[in-house]
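Training component of the fellowship. As part of building independent skills, the fellow (R.M.) carried out the full modelling exercise for a liganded target. The chosen ligand was flavin-adenine dinucleotide. The inputs are recorded below so that the supervisory panel can assess the work.
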Amino acid sequence: MSDIAALKAALNGIRIEDNPAIVKQKSRDFFWYSPVLKRELDHVSGDLVVSPANEAEVIRVLKACYAAGVPVTPRGSGTGNYGQAMPLSGGVVLSLAEMNAVKAVERGRVVAEPGAVLAHIDRETRKSGQELRLHPSTYNTASLAGFVAGGSGGIGSINWGGLRDVGNVLRLKVVTMEEEPRVLELTGWDLHKVMHAYGTNGIVTEVEVPLDAAYDWVDVIVGFDDYLGAVRFANLIANQDGLLFKEIAAVAAPVPHDYFLRHQKFLNKTDSVVLLMVAPHAMDPFLALARREKAEIRFRSDTATEAEKKGLPPVFELTWNHTTLRGLRVDPTITYLQVLYPFPTHVESVARMTGIFGDEVPGHLEFIRFDGNVACTGLPIVRYTTDQRLDEIMTIHEDNGCPIFNPHRYTLEEGGMKRTDEVQLAFKREADPRGLLNPGKMVAWENPDFDWKSEKVFLFPGLRTAAE
Ligand SMILES: Cc1cc2nc3c(=O)[nH]c(=O)nc-3n(C[C@H](O)[C@H](O)[C@H](O)COP(=O)(O)OP(=O)(O)OC[C@H]3O[C@@H](n4cnc5c(N)ncnc54)[C@H](O)[C@@H]3O)c2cc1C
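Fellow's submitted model of the complex:
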C-alpha cells in the first residue's frame, strides 16, 4: 500500500479515484455470467482507478507504475464477460473512458480514441452515411478498444467475419509498459500482437477501423414451431447472395417467450425464432422468400406502430450475449456455452446436439462468415446444475466435433484457442518485461510449464487462497 501512496503522489494532476466502494465497482466486469467465475473472482478489486485524459497521461501512468512495480489493468466500459478486465493482483485499474473522441471520419474508415463507445462512433460516422462494420451486442455501452482487446465479433459478422479477420481493424496505437514507455503504431499482421490479448501486452490509445455503408436496418422476428426449422431457415437466408442482413440468429423455444419479456406480446410460448436485421431494400425479396418457406413473421419494426414499439430494445439486444443476459434476469441459475459448429456440417451438428441435450441446453446460434463460408457459432443456454455436469456437456460437444470456447475461464488460453498465442507472448516479453499488465490472464507468462490440456483448472497464484 505504501507503493500506492507514492504512486498517487507521482500521478498528481491525473484523475484518480480511491474510494474503496467505487474502486471495487470499477474493478468488476460481467464475470458473474459464469457461476464458476462468480465464485473465483467475486472478491477481486484494484487499489486505485486512474483515468488519463490523453496519451501523454497514459505514458505518465505506465512509467510511474513500472517504476513502482504496480500492476495495471486497462478497462473500457467493463462489459467483458470472462473477467478479462478484473485486476487479479490489485493495483491500478486504468480507465480509458475519458479518452473517447472520434478523431477522424473518412470514406471507408474512422479513427477514434480507445474509450469511444461504439454507438457514439456510429452517430458520428452516420453523418457521412457510414457505420461500423462490426459491433458487439453491447453497442450502446462498450468501448472500441475494449472490443478490439476483449471481444471477438458480433453484429455484422454475417458479412465480415470475426474482428481478428484481416482487414477488420486497420491500425492501432499502443503504449508499452517499460521504464520509458514507447508508442507503437501497429498495422497488418502486427495487429495480432495485441488484438484479443486482454490488454496483457500494451495499452491501446488509438484505433482505426473500416466502415461500411449505413442503413436503417429493419428488425424482424420470424417464428417457427420447431428449433431445427428455425435453424434451417436461418441457414437458407444466410446463404442468399442477393440479400443483405446485418444479423441472423436462431434461438430455441422456450427462450424467446420466457426471456425476451418486452417482445413476449409478439411471441407464442412454443416459438423458436430467427432474429434478423434486414437492409430496407432487401425486405421485399426477403419477405417473398419467407412466404415461400411458410415462415411466419412475428414482428417487423418497419410496419409496427409507435405504440407497439414503445419500450422495445433493438433486436440486436436479443442476440449474442444479450440472449444470455435476458435469460439471467429471469432465471439467475442458468449459464451458457460458446460452441463452434464447423462448416459445412453445422446444421447436422446442431441437430445432433439438440437431440442429445434437449431443454437442458436450449439452442442459440449466431450465423457468421467464417473463412468465406456461412457457418454458425453457438451461445446455447445451459440449465446449470453442477460444475461436473457443465464439464460433461462441454466434453460431449467436443467429442461430437463441436469445439468449445470455454466462457467459464478467465485466461486467454483456456477460454480461447486452447494454445498459447506465441506472437502475443513474444510481444509481452518486449512490451511488458516486468509482467505488470493485466496479470494472471496469460497462462504462458505466469506458468510456462502449465499443461493447459490437462483437466486441472489454472488458477492465478494470487487467487488461490480466495477461491480454494
Ligand atoms: C450482454 C453482453 C453482450 C455481449 N455481446 C458481445 C458480442 O456480441 N460480441 C463480442 O465480441 N463480445 C460481446 N460481449 C463482451 C463485451 O461486451 C465486448 O467484447 C465489448 O466490446 C467489451 O468492451 P468494453 O469496453 O466493455 O471492454 P472491457 O470489458 O472494459 O475490456 C475488455 C478487455 O479489453 C481490455 N482493454 C480495455 N481497454 C483497453 C485498452 N485501451 N488497451 C488495451 N486493453 C484494453 C481489458 O483489460 C479487458 O481485458 C458481450 C458482453 C455482454 C455482457
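The panel noted the following from the submitted structure. The pocket of flavin-adenine dinucleotide is lined by residues 29-30, 73-81, 84-85, 96, 114, 136-138, 142-143, 145-147, 149-154, 198-199, 203-204, 320-322, 325, 438 (CB under 6 Å). The two ends are 25 Å apart (CA to CA).
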